[in-house]
Write a structure and sequence with these properties.
Elements lengths: L5 H14 L2 H12 L9 E5 L5 H9 L5 E6 L2 H11 L4 E6 L15 E5 L7 H14 L6 E15 L5 H11 L14 H11 L2 E7 L2 E3 L4 H15 L7 H13 L5 E13 L1
Parallel strand pairs: 1-2, 1-4, 2-3, 4-5
Antiparallel strand pairs: 5-8, 6-8, 7-8
Helix pairs in contact: 5-7, 6-8, 8-9
Length: 270
């Protein structure tokens, strides 16, 4: 899978924090709190951990003692996470190819978490992960908290005639292979629910949209640039019209608004 820079992850973190559904986050913490006492600190395995944003989101919401195993393919991001949290949290970092489910260090987990990850993977990946975790439940029940899965919706104000064309092309790009097979993109939430229910989990959904305005100007500007780069050359996207869309959108980054839809999901053994 392609990497993400520390700067980008830091830039989006406040929007991610605001977007997370607080009720579902609290349910995830309650699942941790209900872990059998004999296990000591419940273990959270965070996939695609980056610099530790999920850790920060959950520990900010609750003071429950938790052990963290942060898993990512990017050694630079893992080193940053260790530097930020190694002295204040019980943190283990693990470098791993996230696409190799059979090699992921999931053993002992009470909760598997991920943020903005599962829209990058294939349904086959989700199916395999659900089966592995269902098997682990025979010894120790394990849940899944997957936040900020893109749902395919983006709404800009003020509007522009190219908004729909750009969104359609962007959603098509989101289905390209990101290193896990054909990506789920906007279908991630539905596919996760389907596969985990089939594997014997109870699934709860919540909406978690980014709601961006002038205070998020730097993030909006990067989002516009990233979307334009993803759709450039796509069928039906005229180069000149796309350039004009970018100019218009950037001119409104400080005064307009943008809402990007996401879905949070919690799956626990039924």
């Amino acid at each position: 899978m392609s990497g993400f820079s520390i700067d980008w992850l830091d830039l989006r973190e406040d929007a991610d924090r605001r977007a997370r559904d607080p009720g579902l986050r609290q349910q995830a913490m309650q699942w941790l709190q209900a872990a059998p006492l004999a296990t000591g600190k419940p273990l959270v395995v965070d996939l695609g951990a980056g610099t530790g944003s999920t850790l920060r989101a959950l520990t900010a919401a609750d003071s429950l003692p938790v052990a963290w195993r942060l898993v990512d393919h990017d050694l630079v991001l893992l080193a940053e996470a260790q530097g930020r949290h190694g002295s204040t949290q019980r943190v283990e970092t693990c470098a791993a190819d996230l696409s190799r489910i059979e090699l992921l260090p999931l053993a002992g987990a009470r909760l598997v978490t991920a943020s903005a990850l599962f829209d990058l993977v294939s349904e086959g990946f989700i199916e395999a992960l659900a089966k592995v975790l269902r098997s682990q439940c025979e010894e120790n029940p394990v849940g899944v908290y997957a936040a900020l899965n893109y749902d395919g919706s983006t709404h800009w104000a003020p509007e522009h005639p190219m908004d729909g064309v750009v969104l359609q092309a962007f959603n098509q790009d989101q289905r390209q292979d990101k290193g896990f097979g054909p990506a789920l993109g906007p279908e991630a939430g539905d596919a996760m629910g389907r596969q985990f229910i089939q594997a014997g989990f109870a699934v709860t959904y919540a909406s978690s949209p980014w709601v961006l305005d002038g205070a998020d100007q730097a993030l909006v500007a990067e989002l516009i640039t990233g979307i334009a780069g993803a759709v450039a050359g796509s069928p039906g996207v005229d180069t000149g019209a796309l350039e004009e869309w970018v100019r218009f959108r950037q001119s409104k980054a400080a005064s307009g608004t943008c809402t990007v839809g996401h879905t949070d999901l919690l799956a626990t053994p039924a």
